Amino acid sequence: MFVKSKLLERRLTETGQRLKRLRVDLQVAEEQLSHFSEEAEDARIRSLVSETPLAGQEHREASKHAESMRRHRELLLKEIGRVEDLQNLLLDQMASQ
Questions:
Q1: 12-25 pLDDT per residue, tens
Q2: d(CA 85, CA 87)
Q3: Burial of 56 (0-12, 13-18, 19+ CB in 10 A)
Q4: Cα 66 from Cα 60, distance rounded (Å)
């Protein structure tokens, strides 16, 4: 019983550390998404005003960067949810001992 408890404690600690890292990554991703979204919006306005092929290409590239960061952020949110579920399961197992 003691060994199982120690194993659960170790897994809980590791899960908590993983959550901290994921939340830091999420914060960075949100900052980058904000930057890329602003950049894409600026490029969109420039492409509308200048109506040149180069401005249109810059807008498409900036939009791709923003969308890529949006997808990355969504993946981080899903992973955080998955790790939180695991943490809750481990806490339930500890409480039932």
A1: 999 999 999 999 99
A2: 5
A3: middle
A4: 10
Q: Which residues of 72-83 are buried (b: 16+ CB within 10 A; e: fewer)?
A: bbeebeeebeeb
- Residue 29 near residue 72, CB atoms below 8 Å: yes
Q: What is the DSSP letter of 51?
A: -
- Taking alpha carbons only, the member of 58, 61, 67 closest to residue 32 is 67
Decide: residue 41, CB within 10 A, 0-12 exposed, 13-18 middle, 19+ buried.
middle
Number of H helices, E strands in the chain: 2, 0
Q: In terms of pLDDT, which residue wins out, 33 or 97?
A: 33
Full-model pTM = 0.86
